[in-house]
Amino acid sequence: MTVTTVPTVLTARALLLDMDGTLVNSDAVVERIWRRWAERHGLEGDEVMKVAHGRQGHATMALLLPDRPMEQNHADNARMLAEETADVDGVVPIAGAGRFLESLRGLPHALVTSADVALSTARMAAAGLELPEIRITAECVGASKPDPEGFLKGAAELGVDPAQCVVFEDSAAGIAAGRSAGMRVVGVGARADFHDPDVVVRDLTQVRAEPTTDGGIRLYVG
Question: What pTM was computed for the model?
């Protein structure tokens, strides 16, 4: 993994934070549930996991089962969301996430996640993390990451120009969504390293946020 070794300073008017893989390590649950789904549908688990991270479930299913009607994908996704919400075994915070979120109190930021309200609430609670006041969840958008809709809605909710936002993401779909929204991207963790974010950190212990005198945010990365 190529992490940022030279300290980098970024300035922004707002931060948009993914959840799974960025604030919360939910890989154990995601692997359990999606590998069971893959087995039920006669698919190779490793191939499913290559596309499952970062997307809404129905969007993943549409990629993997292109001939299946979308209403079936949505129904299947609803069942899987219920399973994921009930299963928080192994859900833990990404290192540094709690301190990082505390440092953002009073600063413009939002959660932008492919999870729905119930799942994001359950996972953040299981990880012992405080939910940001502004949250863009699956219910808020018509298109899943890598579509930029979620990040653009987050910027609009905060009243900030997309070009003045910095996204924190771990997945290919999420990084692509941030770039499509015209935002800079801080990649978090090993997955992010393969998808060319602006900078990459091992975890959130390598990031520090401070307010600027003009109401913005200064990020020290690396």
Answer: 0.89
Average pLDDT, the chain: 93
Of the residues 18, 27, 116, 147, only one is catalytic, namely 18
Q: DSSP assignment of 80-141, as one string?
A: HHHHHHH--TT-EEPTTHHHHHHHTTTS-EEEE-SS-HHHHHHHHHHTT-PPPSSEE-GGG-
Structural element, H or E, at residue 57: helix 57-64
Q: Kindly report, residue by residue over 88-135, the tens digit of the pLDDT.
A: 999 999 999 999 999 999 999 999 999 999 999 999 999 999 999 999
> How many whole angstroms from its chain centre is CA 120?
10
For the question of residue 20 being annotated catalytic, the response is yes
Question: Does 18 qualify as catalytic in the annotation?
Answer: yes
Nearest to 164 by CA among 31, 25, 16, 63: 16
Determine phi and psi for 135, rounding to 5 degrees. -135, 125
According to DSSP, residue 20 is labeled B
β-bridge pairing 109-112 and 207-211: unpaired
